């Protein structure tokens, strides 16, 4: 059996203010044999990662072929701790810097992995296009994730799973549909 999909969750208040991501994580927990969730803000409430934390995160990445980054869109990016996590975990000599090494060797630990992004957006879908107030599609918003994956020798889904309009009175029914759709989308990802 393939390793579960690793879901890296970055929501600063998953247990409190989060409605969408809390529900998504609850749904993933119902399928623990398929998905392993790492809640960065619960693991690193101080917002930093020490050497032990970096080693732990690297080990988790090494064990999984498919990694999903789940977060609410903050100013067309991810919450700060996910950026800190990337800066610390994707170190030279581990994630990159070994261009002549085979996948999995030092400097190429992420080569051959498959990444994807699952995000919630407060704004409505109609604004996520060239003519909309955002001016960019969700695929364009996640270009930094796609570029990073490319740089470390991984692949990244070009389209993120996106739930729009989360600040506009999302109904309980819409939330439940999104949780089911999210699991279905995850199950359709390539396994790296």
TrEMBL record:
Nucleotide-binding keyword on record: no
Pfam families: Flavodoxin_2
Residues of the Flavodoxin-like fold domain: 5-184
An example Gene Ontology molecular-function term: oxidoreductase activity
InterPro entries associated with the record: Flavodoxin_fold, Flavoprotein-like_sf, KefG/KefF
Entry keyword set: Oxidoreductase
The EC number(s) this enzyme carries: 1.-.-.-
Coiled coil spans: none
Name by which UniProt lists this protein: NAD(P)H-dependent oxidoreductase
UniProt source species: Collinsella ihumii
UniProt lineage: Bacteria, Bacillati, Actinomycetota, Coriobacteriia, Coriobacteriales
